[in-house]
Amino acid sequence: MHIIDLRSDTVTQPTQSMRRAMAEAKVGDDVFGEDPTVNTLQEKAAERLGKEAALFVASGTMANLVSLLTHCGRGDEVILGDRSHIFLYEQGGTAALGGIHPRTVPNEPHGTMSVCGIEAAIREENVHFPPTRLIALENTHNRCSGSPLGPAYLREVRALADRYGLKVHVDGARLFNSSVAQGVDVRELSAAADTVTICLSKGLSAPVGSLVCGTRDFIARARRTRKVVGGGMRQAGILAAAGIVALDEMVTRLAEDHANARALAEGLSTMTGLSVDLEFVKTNIVFIDVEREDLTAPVLAARLKPDGVLVQVTGPRRMRAVTHYGVSAEDIDFTLTAFKKAMGSNLHFSHFP
């Protein structure tokens, strides 16, 4: 059976060119800074984002953890969104391992936090309060429908941070999706941040890895942090080789994922009993609300599974579908037919004109 796995873009398979690059990669000991392929990847990522240096790490969670532990000391505070990945889905690692206090600000539907809300959360100098050190943003914003944050907003947050002497970190796991969706160079989305992370193993389809990008001084300190959390890898060039291919070959094709997500959303929005807010479908993430009283999201997902369509249940009446490399326009057409069937009809549905 052909499986259409829409649970996440983390399920992507490495391309054939990635597999070849991995097999042929030149390697060394990266803890000693001697893996030539890792060094090439780091240099390429830093140049791509307009930063001085970069650090290869095992995952997006590690990238954020290393960044925040390097920015903040124990008892310091980070301002971040109440729906952010760092706050919700990383086991509270910055608090558990770094003693960093999270101060949440409500995320707006499009993934931003209001600048006024951020400013109101900044602590005044007071012996009773943890000192504010960092503002953390997420671009694109996973829980907010994969919404991209624009350059103007990022510059506003930067200006606010500068007024208060704070640093800015961007969780850019899907930063290239934001860049492609907005038609904006990724450097413009990175310019306002002191540090930016990017993930190689989501839409870019590499099997493993993320990068932290920032100044040379920050990355030197982050390298020490990576070591203390167990992230020092040895002959990691085998993994980095796929990351190089990801940056060279997989960015522009993200537009295909966005088009497929839009087609899926538009098709689902016409089905009685389902609701999709098309305003928020701008990248590769589609949230679907089940409005039929006699049906729940887990039951609908179970009905889709025998037809080989996998989606992520995110609540009793909500599910998420993420398009990615390996999901074609024809797969979207089949998925819409499967949804129609699961909703109680065998009528064919096509998004093709």
From TrEMBL:
One of its GO terms (cellular component) is cytosol. CDD domains: TA_like. GO terms for molecular function: L-allo-threonine aldolase activity. One of its GO terms (biological process) is L-threonine catabolic process. Its cofactor is pyridoxal 5'-phosphate. It comes from the Bacteria. Its EC number is 4.1.2.5. InterPro entries: ArAA_b-elim_lyase/Thr_aldolase, Low_specificity_L-TA-like, PyrdxlP-dep_Trfase, PyrdxlP-dep_Trfase_major, PyrdxlP-dep_Trfase_small. Residues 5-289 form the Aromatic amino acid beta-eliminating lyase/threonine aldolase domain. The modification N6-(pyridoxal phosphate)lysine is found at residue 202. Pfam families: Beta_elim_lyase. Keywords: Lyase, Pyridoxal phosphate. NCBIfam families: GntG_guanitoxin, PRK10534.1. Belongs to the threonine aldolase family. This is L-threonine aldolase.
